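Throughout our pipeline, every protein is held as a single compact record rather than as scattered files. Nothing more is needed to write down the fold, since each code stands for a local backbone conformation. For reference, a complete record is included directly beneath this paragraph.
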Amino acid sequence: MFLYELELQSFRCFNQKKLTFTKPITFVIGTNGIGKTSVLEAIHYLCYFKSFRSHIISDVIQSGSESFFLKGVFDRTYDFEKAGHIIQVGYSGQKKSIKLDQKNVTSYKQIMTFFQVITLTEDDIDLIKGYPAQRRAFIDQAVLLSDYTAFDLYTSLRKVLAHRNSLLAHGRNIDLIELEIWTQSLWKITVNIQKLRVEALSRVVTSVNKLLSEYFDGIYEVNILYEYKYTNSNQSYEDFSRKMSHLIDQELVMKRSLFGAHLDDLKFQIRGKRAKIFASRGQQKLISLLCKLSLATLRVNEQDFPIILIDDFISDFDKIRLKQLATFFQKCQNQIIMTAPFCDLELRGMFNDVDLELITL
């Protein structure tokens, strides 16, 4: 996947800005507050229809405006003559409009087969020590990059969970027969998602350890364990029901579902020890980064190489790690767009095997 052109209108600090990308690796450089992160945010928005910085849409609209517009010109290959796809995202009149090649788009599912983006931000560096929701989002992205059809399963999970929680909100006046129907539906969807997550997790672990071996002298042995919350994909519904009986009273009090794929978690290990507790900050940063980079290997189609976005590349690692990462970036086939406050001769020297593109804001 290669992004050739990006256009922003009334987005964050940009009134109107057009950027072109002509090299596989690009550094977007400039002082703090100039809009470097906003450029990556715009590309991310074109893929996921949302920001990685805020869930409030007004936050991305330039001050004084009531609308914004984004446009990306891209294709699967690094060839300017084949840059034939266009994604447009606009917001006006409190309504979002999304188009792919001038056709209306209503779901992320319609985009994911055309345009994939992997974004690494400061929050992703805290993957190990962060919240469970962050780790679930990570493994679910791994699943979707491996199997686009899983999107429907996640949609079903949200719908069934909403119905079941709505039912539990009635408290003791609940219809137990209806509750059983929704319980079984939630269990079935959860088990299917868990199986996909465990399969994707195995591929992530393999990829991370391969990266460590090839580019970081095999300094760590990493493992990631899947932590089930009551529901286990290896047990039958009958076994689950017997263990679940004591949870019903708690659910009626809490008025929400206390089991399901939305509550599971991941546990990271380095050399067999819990990374959250025993790993250093530097180790946690590197493993979190490699986990995100491993997503680039989970492709449905061999010709699809997701665009990798990295915000504030140089601040999180020392020179040795930066050189090792630069070696990896130069060998991978993905387009990489990074932000940095500067790109001096030393940093350029780390990328001596490629012709870097520098965009100064």
Remarks:
- The radius of gyration is 22 Å.
